[in-house]
Write a structure and sequence with these properties.
The structure is a homodimer.
Chain A lengths: L14 E10 L7 H13 L4 E9 L1 E8 L2 H9 L1 H14 E18 L2
Antiparallel strand pairs in A: 1-3, 1-4, 2-3
Helix pairs in contact in A: 1-3
Chain lengths: 112, 112
């Protein structure tokens, strides 16, 4: 995955965030990077997807933003995503944690 | 900041997450790294602090976990933290976004 260079732009709260944190353990020749890129592109096509922020350094953090919990549940059940989840547990991740959170407030700053 | 090598361990939901995403722009000689390390250590001493996950690669992501909104509000008002917030806007961050979210569900996986 290439490093991101911009932040997700999301609507006014409330909306939902899925906070995925992980430690991965990838061997050369693994299809991890291409699978991760494919799954990210697929997520972006789903109903209710609002954006994503990710950084991978030491640990992996991916925060995806969604319109509602139904969109998150549908994405979890997506067939291609389910295959990747299985591969993640079987091969790539030593440990991960997924937190589903309701974003209640948000504010930001951009240098003018 | 040194890369993290383990994930935050948090109690059963509900609790709160503060999702901080940023793009920083640091010049040599800036006190960014030492200030960030100091603020992280200070956060960990605050009432209601539960843990933190962070990764910096392209963009910065810091997700801190808190027992309740009152703890988050008190931390925002902490005097030393307020000085760092001011420096962040004046010097280090091109843009950032802060989302306060209520963690409703969480689940994980650890290779046995």
């Amino acid at each position: 995955m290439l490093p991101m260079t911009d932040l997700a732009r999301t609507p006014e709260p409330p909306y939902y965030a899925v906070i995925f944190t992980a430690i991965h353990n990838v061997s050369p020749g693994d299809r991890y990077a291409e699978t991760a890129a494919r799954i990210l592109a697929l997520a972006a096509e789903q109903p209710g997807f609002l954006g994503v922020d990710m950084a991978n350094e030491g640990i992996d953090i991916t925060v995806s933003y969604w319109a509602d919990e139904a969109s998150i549940a549908a994405w979890k059940r997506n067939a291609e995503h389910a295959v990747a989840q299985h591969e993640g547990k079987a091969r790539w991740y030593d440990t991960y944690e997924i937190r589903i959170a309701r974003v209640e407030r948000a504010y930001g700053f951009t240098r003018s």
